[in-house]
Amino acid sequence: MKIQLKYFGKIVDITGVNEEEWQCTTPKTLQEIKEDLTTKYPALQQEVYKFAVNLSLENLDYVVKESCEIAVLPPFSGG
Amino acid sequence: MLTSDENKRYSRHLLLDQVGVSGQLKLKQAKVLVIGAGGLGCPVLQYLTAAGVGTIGIVDFDVVDLTNLQRQILFTTEDVGKNKATTAAKRLSQLNPLVQFIVFPEKLTPQNALTIFEGFDVVVDGTDNFSTRYLISDASVILNKPLVYGSIHKFEGQVAVFNYKNGPSYRCLFPTPPAPDQIQSCSEVGVLGVLPGIIGTQQANEVLKIILEIGEPLNGKLMLINALSSSSVLLTIQRTAAIETTLANKENFSQTDYDLFCGIAPIPADQPNLKELCDHPDYQVIDLREPWEEPKLTGKSVVLLPLGELKNEIAQISTDKQVMLVCQNGIRSQQAKSFLEDYHGFKNVSNLIGGIQGNGE
Lengths: 79, 361
What we know:
The complex is a heterodimer.
Chain A (H helix, E strand, L loop, with lengths): L1 E6 L2 H6 L3 E5 L4 E2 H11 L9 E4 L2 E3 L4 E2 L4 E5 L6
Parallel strand pairs in A: 1-7
Antiparallel strand pairs in A: 1-2, 3-6, 4-5, 4-7
Chain B lengths: L3 H6 L1 H4 L5 H10 L1 E5 L5 H11 L3 E5 L24 H12 L4 E5 L8 H6 L3 E4 L4 H14 L3 E7 L2 E7 L7 H4 L12 H4 L4 H19 L8 E6 L4 E6 L5 H7 L9 H4 L12 H4 L5 E5 L14 E3 L2 H4 L11 E5 L4 H14 L4 E3 L3 H4 L3
Parallel strand pairs in B: 1-2, 1-4, 2-3, 4-5, 9-10, 9-11, 11-12
Antiparallel strand pairs in B: 5-6, 6-7, 7-8
Helix pairs in contact in B: 4-5, 4-10
C-alpha cells in the first residue's frame, strides 16, 4: 500500500524533503511508522513530534491504511 | 452606548452585520492579555488596539534589541534598550487613546501568573520559549480562560485556540516539550520577518472572533501556515486527559518549576563567577553567541566562537586549560558541550548553566 508523509518545521531539516511517498506491504500502526522513520532518519530519535492522519491528530496505536496522508508535526517555540 | 468619537473611529466595524454597535460594545468591554510583545505580540497588539478592545494587558520583561526591529514592528531604532511592554503601550496609546493598557514589565512566573490572568477574558501566547508556553497553558486551563496560541519556525507557523468551550488544551496537542538541546530559537536559525506578522494577525483574528462570538474560532483545530508555499493546513485535535491532570495538580501550580519540566537545569549555587574566569589564566571562556548579542564578554581568556562555526574551529579549543562554554541562556552551551565531549572526546569542558542571562551578568 501507498502512504504519503508530510513533514513540518524542524523535521524537514532532518528529512531534507517536505514530503515523500512510502510503499508498505501491510497496514501499520503509527508506532511502526515512527520506528521506520527513525531507521531511515536516525536524528529523529531525539525529536518530539505528533502524527496527524488525513488531517486529524492520532495516537500511536492508530492503524494507517491505503492512501493515508500522514503529517509529522513538531512543536515550535518561536515567537 | 458608543460616543460620537467611537462611532466615527469604528464606523467600518459598525457597517458589518456581524459586528455593529453591539459587537463594538463587546470589544470595548473585553479584556485581553498579550504575553510577549515580540514578533507575534506586536501585530496582535496593533490590531486589537485598532479594533477597540477596551482593556489590553501586556507582559514582557525584555528590552528592545536592534535584531528585533526586522520583525517587531511596534518599535523604532530609538527604542533599543527600552522595556518592550512599556514601549509598546506608549506607542499603542497614540494609535488608540480610548484603550486602557495595563503593563506588566516583568517575567511571567508560576507565582504571578494566576493573579495577572484573573483580570482578563482572553489570553494570547506570543512568547518564544517552551517553559513559558507550558506555564501559560496550565494557568489558562486552571482559570478556564480561552488561550489563543501562535508559534513560528523559520517560514512556518502554528495557530490554535485552546480551552474554549470545553475544547482541547496545548498539552492535548503536545504533552511534553522537546529536550532543550533540540530546540532552535529565532536567534539561532532565523525567521522571515513577515512570518510573525502573518501568524500574529491570525491570532488577532481569533481573539476578535471569540469576543464577538462570530465565525468559527480555531477550537479543536491547529492551523499550519507555510509562508514559502503560501499554503495552509487545518488539523483536528482531540481533548485528552491532560486537562484533568493539569486541574488535579492545580494546588501545586505555583511551585512548579517549568524550566525543570522543559529539561533546563536549575542554576547551581556554586556556579563559578564568569567575570573572574574571563581573565583567569587557567581558563578559556568560549563565547558561543553571535557577534551582535549583548552584553559583550571581555577579558584575556575570552574567545568568540559562534556555535555555527564551532565544528570547523575545533583546533581553537584548548586541550590543557579548563574550557567554560558560555551563551545567552545555557542552551547553545549545553549543545556545544555534548558535541565536544561526544564527537571530539574533550574532557576539560563545562558550560555556564542558565547562560549570561540566567546568571544576571
